């Protein structure tokens, strides 16, 4: 492989890998607290993209029940500059976070209250995902929606530079994705590692019983966890949507599955693990030779399968010894 | 009667098929292993039948065997699924709980991407024009294939549960370490249960390819894994009737709700949420509890002392 190709692939891999990382963090946060995988996380990802799209464009043209409704008849206040697009993205992610909170209330809390088999919580979260995805389809149809090119204002389309006689092109979107993800990771790392909220969250993750004895309101911190999880998932949805368009209600399904591969690869419940897993899978996919690009979607799962066999606790996970 | 059969024949066969797929997941679950691999083996079995029934390479065998080629496809599908089940099962069953579920999801996804891209599986278009089994004229006639298979499987499951193997599986489900300590080798039995499920799913797939007339990568997806898991958990995971009832019911719900058109999948999702909340033992579990109410509390050893003011 030529050096220019190496640079290009690395850049592509880092951009997509960083989205995988923040998306997968949403899974891992919930898993570390509840020990359950929230299968509705992919649907939250999709919703985040749609929320931002709604704020930026204000209407859906193709079909669905929302067709013909125009939220901003005079042009959306959220499009036309990078700043307002950023604001729309932020609100979109907050809304996705609120949906995740709702999912917790509907699908997980009643289960916890009854001490039900965790498997049933899994099925319940799948049911919620089914509801959400089909609701989206009902409301806005199954078409791809592309963010209009002026949505994020006068941002230069791409960064190109020469290496030898080859040109390496990095799309602005990729740089934005990478930077936003990096900032999110830094903030999250700070919140969890250094703040009081983070300390409480870690306590709840370690042992909910003891945490509640220490005066931590476990239910409240579970809600906070779900909010953070949905926020990250929704943000990831918008970022991917900006790069490739919002590809219908089933947009999040593939990401949902790849996110699982990411967190298992890194180590279930491990935050640095999710980041590492995301980058590893992003890079691995970027380096799949063009001739085999059709097999790209299998890379994450092949890695997942291999890591489960070689090191089931994942790259950075702790081995769990089963209690006798 | 004819009207009924032609209207509902397809649905009835689909219900039987759903029950069978539910059972294929039920076998590993009996040993406490949550495997979502069934759609992978189902897809494999379907491709085996589709290829054997349409590919030019097998024209000679088809001509020589006539209708006998159909049982042959079942046999080959069962064998291949069994072998693949062993190959995947032996390493994967070292994993527990959610890890095994994720490994089997990965297995299904890898198979899906492969079938989407290989030449022999027809790529994204898949394989079409698969001849009807035994020259069946109507889809409802597949009842004659899926019906007996379901009965046989139920008999087998019933016998298995009462056998030494069945007791070993239950012991592993309740407490693997204790079972191991008692001399029940967990891995061997877990792999056995997994392979039984794989073989069953493979056979169902090989019968389904002619039934559907076409076979493609959509047959074995994560969605299918979830649907089948829901069959078992909603129906009841501790009784052989659970997967059958759950499969039939969850396949019928969208049909019955057809008049709701776009809303039916939403209702389907709500059914999953509500059922997992209110029927933790599944429908069959709940019925059993109704039929056999909990034994009355044993009286305390000593009558409580009377409290006098």
When the domains of chain B are counted, the total is 1
Q: Pick out the low-confidence regions of chain B.
A: 299-309
The sequence of SSEs of chain B as H and E is HHHHHHHHHHHHH
DSSP, total strands of chain B: 0
Radius of gyration of chain A: 20 Å
Q: Biggest sheet of chain B: strands, sense, closure?
A: none
| Whole-number count of domains of chain A | 1
Give the number of helices of chain B: 13
Question: Based on CA inertia axes, which overall geometry of chain A fits?
Answer: globular
Identify the CATH architecture of chain A: Orthogonal Bundle
Distance between the first and last residues' Cα of chain B: 75 Å
SSE inventory with pairings:
The complex is a heterodimer of chains A (324) and B (309).
Chain A lengths: L2 H32 L6 H17 L24 H33 L3 H23 L3 E2 L12 E6 L2 E6 H23 L1 H11 L1 H6 L4 H27 L1 E2 L3 H16 L4 H16 L9 H15 L14
Antiparallel strand pairs in A: 1-4, 2-3
Helix pairs in contact in A: 1-5, 1-8, 1-9, 1-10, 2-3, 2-4, 2-8, 2-9, 3-4, 3-8, 5-6, 5-8, 6-8, 9-10, 9-11, 10-11
Chain B lengths: L1 H29 L7 H17 L4 H7 L3 H24 L4 H21 L25 H20 L1 H11 L1 H6 L4 H27 L9 H14 L5 H16 L7 H15 L3 H10 L18
Helix pairs in contact in B: 1-6, 1-9, 1-10, 1-11, 2-4, 2-5, 2-9, 4-9, 6-7, 7-9, 10-11, 10-13, 11-13
Description:
The complex is a heterodimer of chains A (324) and B (309). Chain A contains 11 helices and 4 strands. In chain A, the strands form 2 sheets. Chain A has a two-stranded antiparallel ribbon with strand order 1-4. In chain A, helix 2 runs antiparallel to helix 3, helix 3 runs antiparallel to helix 4 and helix 9 runs parallel beside helix 11. Chain B has one domain. Chain B contains 13 helices and no strands. In chain B, helix 1 packs parallel to helix 6, helix 1 packs antiparallel against helix 9 and helix 7 crosses helix 9. The longest helix of chain B has 29 residues. The N and C termini of chain B lie far apart (75 Å).
